[in-house]
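Q: What would this chain look like folded?
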Amino acid sequence: MNVMYFAWVRERIGVPQEEVETDAATVNDLVAELKAREERYAAAFADTSALRVALDQELAEFDAPLAGIREVAFFPPMTGG
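A: My prediction, written as structure tokens:
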């Protein structure tokens, strides 16, 4: 699965995207796997309430299932202007 990081999430993790092999059933499960990798992931995902997620380019919730999903993107909330 292709996992993409934007804005300060990318800055904390240090890469814009990566291929991740996972058995995670939900976004929350994926986040738990990523946080367990190393400190930079733990820092980026310390407060998921400050993050949004898109699955195959559609906004989703963190309890959304990952079955059949090819792309996950994490980013901070956006404001309009």
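The beta strands are 2-5, 17-19, 52-55, 58-60, 71-75.
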